[in-house]
Amino acid sequence: MDAMLEWARRLSPAEAAAGALAGNLALFTVALLAGGLLVRRFGDRRVTPPPAPPDRRERLLTVVAVLLNSAVGLLGWQLWRAGWIRLTTDPGPRALVDLLLFSLVMDALMYGGHWLAHRRRLYRLAHELHHAYPDPRPATLFVLHPLEVLGFGGAWITVLWLWPGMSVLALSGYIGVNLVFGLLGHLGVEPVPARVRRLAVFRWVALPMFHAGHHADPAVNLGFYTTVWDRLFGTIDPRYDARRAAPDPALP
Fold first, then answer.
1. Is the confidence at residue 42, as pLDDT, over 80?
2. CA–CA separation, 242 vs 237, rounded Å?
C-alpha cells in the first residue's frame, strides 16, 4: 500500500488527470452494466414507471458529470500531494472505523445539502434538472446539474481536508459505498426481497425503494445512505415502513 501511494505521488499532473478520467469512466461503466442487469432481473418489482428513452440532454449531462467528477478527483490528488489531505495505509479496524464515520458524516452533509437544494430558489437554480427525470434508470445517477456535481465533490474534499488522516482503504471503500447506494436508488426496481427488507437494520439503512420514493414525491426521503435524518426531521414518507414490509413494494 505504501508503494502504491509513493507511485501515485510521483505521477505527473497529466498522468493523474488521465487516471482520474479512467477511474470515473470505469465507475460509470460498472454502474450502467450492473444496473442494467439488476433492472432486467427484477423488472417485475418496479417501484417507478419505466423511463422514457434517454434524450440528448440526459446523455450530455452524464458526460459532463463524469468529466467534472474526474476534475474533482484530480483536485483531491493535488491537495493530497501538497499535504492538505492526509492519507494513511492503516488496515483492519482503523479502516473500518474511518469508512463508517466518513459515510455517516457525508450522509448528514448530503441530507442537509439536499434539503437546501429543495428550497424554491435553489431548486430552480440546479436541482430541478435532476427531477426533470422522475422515472429513474441507472444513468440517472449521473444526470445532475454541474453545480450539484461540484457541490458534492467539494463537500467530500472538504471533509477529507479536515480529517486527521483517512485510511486509503476506507476512502476506496467509500467510493464503492457511494456508487452502490446511488445506483440502487436509481434502478426504478426493488431487488431486495421482502423478508430481507423487514429486517430491523433496514429501518435505518436506506433501501433502493427509499430514493425511488423521493423521485415519486420530492418532499420526502431526502437522505441517501440512511433514513436517520429523515426520521429525525420528519421528512420520511409516512408510508415507507409499510411499503418496506409489503410483499409488493410498488409505489402508487
1. yes
2. 10
